[in-house]
Amino acid sequence: MSALIPDAWAQAGAAPSGSPLAPSVLMMVFVIVVFYFLLIRPQQKKAKEHQTMVSKLATGDEVVTSGGILGRIVDVGDTFVTLEIADGVRVKVQKFQVTSLMPKGTLKSA
Predict the structure, then answer these.
(1) Does residue 85 belong to any structural domain of this protein?
(2) Sheet holding 98-102, edge to edge
(3) Which of 18, 33, 38, 45, by CA, is between 20 and 30 Å from 11?
(4) What is the pTM for the complete model shown?
(5) 13 lies in a domain?
(6) 87 with 110, same domain?
(7) CA distance linking residue 75 with residue 34, whole number of Å
(8) Quick one: 40 and 65 in the same domain?
(9) Is residue 80 within 8 Å of 72, Cβ to Cβ?
(10) 3-state secondary structure of 73
(11) What is the CATH number of the domain that holds 99?
């Protein structure tokens, strides 16, 4: 029977080159770089733009708060702004709650 099936002899394989951890470390670095550019960096940029917008708020600006209140700024303090949301109705909110600056005249059309 051995004549029909030849013996198979194992050949010496090539010695592994490099560290077996190298591909996994490179993959982890790649994932961290992707997270930075897709998640962290845009979030930091958005926060910086919001901080700049909040620092430039002035009397007469029309704004929307995070609660969805549309109003005109009548007084600006260090940490609070006073909004007039209707004739004679004023609310005091924290500056960082202002989410967007609206074009002039938005309050009249609303």
Answers:
(1) yes
(2) 89-94, 80-86, 70-76, 62-65, 98-102
(3) 18
(4) 0.68
(5) no
(6) yes
(7) 43
(8) no
(9) no
(10) strand
(11) 2.30.30.60
